[in-house]
Amino acid sequence: MATNEITDPTAAPPAAPQPPRQRGLLPLLLVANSAMMAVYMGVGSVLLPTQIAAIAPDDKVAVLGLIGGISAIFATAFNPIAGALSDRTGRRNPWILGGAVASLAGLAFLGSVTTALLVGIGWCLIQATMNVYQAAVTAVVPDRIPAVRRGTASALVGLGLPIGGTVGVLVASQTVDHLRTGYLVFGAIVSAAALLLTLFCRDLPRTAPTTDRAPAPDGEPEPEPAVTARRKGAGMAAFLSSLSHHDFRWAFIGRALMVLGYFSVVGYQLYILDDHITLPAGLSPASAMAALTPVSMVAMAVSTVVGGLLSDRWNRRKVFVGVSAALAGLVMVVPVVSPTWTGMLVFSALNGLAFGCFMAVDTALVTLVLPRAEDAARDMGVLNVANAGPQIIAPFVASAIVTGLGGYTPLFLAGGALSLIGALAILPIRSVR
Question: Considering the domain boundaries, does residue 18 fall inside one?
């Protein structure tokens, strides 16, 4: 359309249009993330180790490590692939609902098998389908939340970990003697959450107009030929192209190291309580987990909300991420110095504080260093490789440390060292304070 207006070449470019606000989006995202974490924590930390211990009691550490490592390969592969497909279709809801229903089928299968091989196959299927669900759910925040509210939004959504983790472990501890029922309950939880989100929050049209393109790292608009060339990329090179972006790459490294340190220990918590910690008389490892989890998750909830809100108010992300990662590394010493029930209570509270703040603010940080807005789901899927990828390594490394170095003390020390190095990896990020 012709116009008589004169364009000022020095004027700032128009702000990218913000998506229309949807009522109830953040609470429904909280429910969706809580359901996801309930599955990961309840099944992965309680039901699966219990099932493996019943099938292979003498080799439970090695078998859990093998199954956990192989299944994490599926998680690592399916997350960015599903994210890229979700970007291409421009829709999130079909992937959210489809991933949840497929996970229900996988959990039903897992509850019906009685051999280590079939348990491994079932858990691989669940990791794959849950990461289809996760990739689409994770992309909703950069899709629909303004940048200035990312810390608050990430904090609220981040409450899914303490809420879902607590519910998951409590449900699992109540159904640990009836594994088939427990698995079906978790399948129903994630399916119901997906149904709620997709029914009440419709998909928004996703377009990538040239005026709404994210700037290149040096602050200049990315040339059109570069855009075209990027979109012609295929395979893993396309999925991983975001790692050529300096700040995104360092955020990826920091997340990967933190998650590796955390899951090297948390993945074996049931066995740690059974074999390393002196529990009060009459307290079983599963019951101990049910008692410890609320302690950790309440602390995590507090630090998630406080960290997210303060990072928005002060417009600073790196200090929160770095300090919380360092704290997560230091508290690993507590169960080494005091391998008692009291020591585990202290460890759980401090570890919850550290991990909650880290995940909330680090997620906000990452959404601010995404290379391109129109590739948000794909690039968040690449970031989720930093969540799932270390879980490939963690079970193998943890199993080797426990069996080769004689117990869980070296495991705590290795996990702490990894988290401390992860804190240092935040320092090179330049575009976010």
Answer: no
One-character DSSP codes across 236-294: HHHHHGGGGSHHHHHHHHHHHHHHHHHHHHHTTHHHHHHHTSBPPTT--HHHHHHHHHH
Reported confidence tier of residue 211, pLDDT bands at 50, 70, 90: very low
Cβ-contact 31, 46 below 8 angstroms: no
Yes or no: say if 37 and 304 are a contact pair by the CB < 8 Å rule: no
CA gap 26, 307 in Å, rounded: 17
Q: Between 93 and 390, whose confidence is greater?
A: 93
Q: What are the residue ranges of helices labelled H in 315-369?
A: 318-330, 334-337, 341-368
State how far Cα 108 lies from the chain centre: 23
Model confidence, pTM: 0.68
Say what the pLDDT of residue 210 is.
34
Instruction: Identify residue 219 by its one-letter amino acid code.
Output: G
pLDDT tens digit sequence for 329-371: 999 999 999 999 999 999 999 999 998 888 878 877 877 777 7
The SS3 of residue 201 is: coil
**What is the residue range of 354's domain?**
25-203+242-424
The answer to whether residue 230 is domain-embedded is no
Model confidence band, residue 236 (pLDDT cutoffs 50, 70, 90): low
* Token pair 């229903």 in the structure block, residue: 101
What distance separates the 2 farthest-apart alpha carbons in the chain? Answer: 84
Three-state DSSP class for residue 41: helix
Share of the chain above pLDDT 70, in %: 82
Total of domains in the chain: 1
CATH number of the domain that residue 145 is part of: 1.20.1250.20
Average pLDDT over residues 209-225: 42
In a domain, 220, yes or no: no
| Distance (Å, whole) CA 384 – CA 78 | 10
Q: Is 216 part of a structural domain of the chain?
A: no
